[in-house]
Amino acid sequence: MTNPQRAPHLPLGEKRGGRLYGQHILSVKQFSREDIEAIFVIAEEMRTMVERVGTFDLLKGKLLASLFYEPSTRTSSSFTAAMERLGGSVIPISEVRYSSVSKGESLPDTVRTLECYSDVIVLRHPEVGAAATAARYVRKPIINAGDGIGEHPTQALLDLFTIREELGNLDGLTVTMLGDLKNGRTVHSLSRLLTLFHARINLVSPEMLRMPPEIMEELAAKGVTLSEHRELESVLPNTDVLYVTRVQKERFADEADYLAHKDAYVITPATLTQAKQKMIVMHPLPRVGEISMDVDDDPRAAYFRQMEYGLYVRMALLAMVLGKA
Ligand code: CP
Question: What tens digit of pLDDT does each residue of 215-233 get?
Answer without folding.
Answer: 999 999 999 999 999 999 9
